[in-house]
Structures are given as C-alpha cells and as structure tokens.
Amino acid sequence: MTETESGLVGTPSESTGPVQRSIASVTGQVIRAVDSQLPPGDIAELRRLTPSDPFSPAFFKLMASAVDPDRELPSGGNSRDEIERRWAVFMQAAAVMRKLNSRKVGLGSALASAGYSEIRFVRLLKARGSILFREIRTAAHYLASKAQMCDLVDIARLLMVTDAERAESVRRSIARGYYGQSDSPGKEN
What is the pTM of this model? Predict the structure, then answer.
C-alpha cells in the first residue's frame, strides 16, 4: 500500500483531480496538536469522544485544522458522517495515547510487547464498523495503561483504509508485527 492510497475521501479538483493527502500526513498533524498544542480541557474532551456522538468543540476544531473539509471529505450525507466517526475514534485514541506515538514501533509489535492477548488481537483485526471502533478504543487504553509506545498511523490506517484489498493488507502487516515479536503472547517459545 502506498501512502497516497490512504482511504481518505477526496473530491475532484478542477485542475488536479482527486485531492488526497497521506494518512501519515493528516494523522501527523492530529498527533502534534494532541501532544503539544491543545489545552488540557480539549484533550479531556477528545478522550471522552464517542463515534456515535463526536459533537465536541475540540473535535471540530481539530478536524478543521487537520483536514480540509472542502477538499478531503465528502460534501455531506452518510459518507461524511462515517469519515467523521472514524476520525473521532482516531482522535480519541491519540488523546488516550498522548505522547506515546513512535513511528519505530508498529501497532502489532506494540500490542505483543505490552502483552495484549491473542484473542483480543484477533478480535481487533477481524472487527469492522462500530465493533472496530470499540476494539481500537480498548487497544488504545491497554497500550496507554502500559505506557507502550506505538505508531498511531497504524491505528489510522486500520480505521481509514476502506478499500477491501488494501484494508486486508493493513491488517496482515499489523498481524506480522504482532506474531513476529519474540515475546508475542501468541508465539510458542
């Protein structure tokens, strides 16, 4: 999967075609804001976000600063609502895991290192829709409780890549990280 195959929804531009930035670029802006720019009250609001009700000033301020809604989101309707729900889950995970982002430690490796159970891990990878949202929140809280560094871009990819083939590739990559750890809960020693 290339970074431009982000799953972010773009609308056509008159001269350049679809406008899409990479997931890493957009999530990088969100992570920087959460880690060092937002006041404590906004961080608390983001931690309390739910995908079914993301109506929080902190959420919409961060969406407006990180994502260009006119160029990178559907104009309205269910598609836009779904993308906003996915961003709400990511922003909540980023707030819960504040200052624990590391591009060097993939999600699978982080979960294995932290001792995340194989049953929970498989449930995370098989989850879709609102169940995926719940499983990501559970994993983020678990990693934060262990102060385990993790590449939050992997969480964003799990949420944002919607093309079935590319989504499967993301899940396989995360699984390789989990089962590739020498201390993986699912690995026989």
Answer: 0.84
